[in-house]
Amino acid sequence: MTGSAPRGPRITRRLIRSCIALAAAISLTVGVAACGLQSGGALPLQVKPGSITVQPDLDGQTVTVGSKDFTEQVILGYILGFSLSAAGANVRDLTNIQGSNSARDAMAAGQVDVTIEYTGTGWINYLGNEQPIPDPTKQFEAVRDEDLKKNGIVWVNPAPMDNTYALAVNQENAQKTGVSTLSEYAALVKKDPAAATTCVETEFRSRQDGFPGMAAKYGFDPAQVQMQILQTGIIYQAIANGNCVFGEVFTTDGRIKALNLNVLEDDKQFFPHYNAAVSMRQDVDEQFPSIAKITAPVMAKLTSEEITELNRQVDVEGREPADVARDWLVKNGFVTV
């Protein structure tokens, strides 16, 4: 290891993010609207305009940016936050909210103004649909139209990146089990459940676009599976070490390549498309129309390859999400420092 000094600021920033997320969760629990509290802090880094310039409707206005609590979401939250800051907004940082439903509730409660959300999550989790739409563009359009009509939530600027769920296995266990598709995984569960130990995180275990829905699609009883519940970040190493034969992964996670894991083919195309898109309440969109304008070119640059590399820099190299996000925006000319 090359010195421990640089780790201090990284730990401090992560502690701050955790405290902010905890404050948000507490405030939502006790009733934010009733007490009028606001959560969130300043962005950890400063940026200046680049190709994103100061916008009259955003200049000096406070906008709260939220995200969920896993690496990619925090990176996307900072990409969004720095973009708005370059446009002149006073950005409040509420990244790192625990869980999809909590992040959505924070927006509904007015704690969060804008996030980057996934189309599959919107369609299945928030809108309650059971069948995904195979075409990514039509999936986005369906989420956009239904969420606006039912909930007053605006979706704009879908990115090319598609971070869907998958199961993965290490090379040794792939050879040992002969499993390369989810159909073969289902057959193994039925034949020899002990050979198909599977690690998942809590949310995937209960989501209809997660393990229960996958089991129904592929025709096996999820209760047969010998399952371990782990934190998302631990699962990848547990798969690599063989502590779990199979495990839940996100397809844009940089650790898949770094740990040489095999992703099982979703041969029945169960998992929805999870294209990232900017999501905000209708009142926020109407007050700040420039949010859609300035984020359009940023989102267009976010391919699966690009976000996988950014995730890798955090999860493999140990860099801070805010540093990674800002560097990417600078490299692409969106902001300056």
Automatic annotation (TrEMBL):
<feature type="domain" description="ABC-type glycine betaine transport system substrate-binding">
    <location>
        <begin position="62"/>
        <end position="329"/>
    </location>
</feature>
<dbReference type="GO" id="GO:0043190">
    <property type="term" value="C:ATP-binding cassette (ABC) transporter complex"/>
</dbReference>
<dbReference type="Pfam" id="PF04069">
    <property type="entry name" value="OpuAC"/>
</dbReference>
<dbReference type="InterPro" id="IPR007210">
    <property type="entry name" value="ABC_Gly_betaine_transp_sub-bd"/>
</dbReference>
<protein>
    <submittedName>
        <fullName>ABC transporter substrate-binding protein</fullName>
    </submittedName>
</protein>
<dbReference type="GO" id="GO:0022857">
    <property type="term" value="F:transmembrane transporter activity"/>
</dbReference>
